[in-house]
Design brief:
By secondary structure, the chain is an alpha/beta fold. The chain is built from ten helices and seven strands. It is globular and about 45 Å long. The structure holds nicotinamide-adenine-dinucleotide (NAD).
Length: about 250
């Protein structure tokens, strides 16, 4: 094999569909052994089965640290090392439509355990084996919602993901682990089409510099770059991959 990820082991959370599935397929195509860490058993099994060799489905709830510890153990048992983690899983497509002032507290607590703390749970579960194997790299899935200031609890969790990214980049550097994030803009997945039905997407597209929705494939190159050795001196960075939705100076 001649892929950038030959002999590497990567865990992708929420890889049973959408953008996470595209990450898992691309990492696998570039030589990695891939763990599909997914809550939806049917979806996770189906992606792993279609990849075949070097792919394993591990039923995982990123909102539960006991489950993410089991995810890391299952990965080590199957492949013997962990080089990369993509914290992509989130409650998104079926997210409740409520504001910060009226969202049910039990729902909000679970949402934050998954969409914010999930990235920390997975990181804490993999950091020791990753460090012992010589180091590695982590990419968190943020969103342009983190910078919009008006996206309620979804944006609050993603703003936290950005903070986790910069803080963990510093806390994990002594283990030779880099931590970065990408912030996708609106991307054509079943989950996004549920959140913003097709008939309401025109104004969204018009607000972008590049006048089309993103696709999962648009995110693959940036994420594989951040995971790879090509980004050896890049850590604590949040990269917008958003067709120019957010412009910062
Ligand atoms: N699609 C977009 O427009 C867009 C834009 C910005 C950011 N994002 C982010 O990208 C990621 C993927 O989005 P998507 O559009 O592919 O949505 P998606 O719903 O297809 O992907 C999320 C995946 O996470 C899984 N998941 C949910 N809860 C889980 C849990 N507790 N443990 C493990 N897995 C769990 C789901 O089953 C699903 O497979 C999310 O983090 C989302 O917030 C998406």
């Amino acid at each position: 094999m001649t892929g950038r990820f030959d002999d590497r082991v990567a865990i992708v959370t929420g890889a049973g569909g959408g953008i996470g599935e595209a990450y898992a397929r691309a990492l696998h195509a570039e030589g990695a052994s891939v763990v599909i860490a997914e809550l939806d058993v049917d979806a996770g099994e189906s992606v792993a089965a279609s990849l075949g060799d070097r792919a394993l489905f591990v039923p995982t709830d990123v909102g539960d640290p006991t489950s993410t510890d089991a995810m890391a153990t299952a990965t080590m048992d199957a492949f013997g090392r962990i080089d990369h983690l993509v914290n992509n899983a989130a409650i998104f497509g079926n997210m409740e439509l409520a504001g910060l002032t009226n969202v049910d507290y039990a729902y909000l607590n679970r949402f934050m355990q998954v969409n914010l703390m999930g990235a920390l749970h997975c990181t804490r579960s993999v950091m020791r084996p990753m460090g012992k194997g010589g180091g590695g790299s982590i990419v968190n899935q943020s969103s342009t919602a983190a910078w919009m200031g008006i996206s309620g609890f979804y944006g609050l969790a993603k703003a936290g993901i950005n903070f986790l990214t910069t803080s963990l980049a510093h806390e994990l550097s002594h283990r030779n682990i880099r931590v970065n994030a990408i912030a996708p803009g609106p991307t054509d997945t079943a989950a996004m089409n549920k959140q913003v039905p097709v008939e309401f997407q025109d104004p969204l597209v018009a607000s972008l510099a590049i006048k089309r929705l993103g696709t999962p494939a648009d995110h693959v190159g940036p994420v594989l770059f951040l995971l790879s050795d090509e980004a050896a001196w890049v850590t604590g960075h949040v990269l917008a991959v958003d067709g120019g939705q957010i412009t910062r100076i």
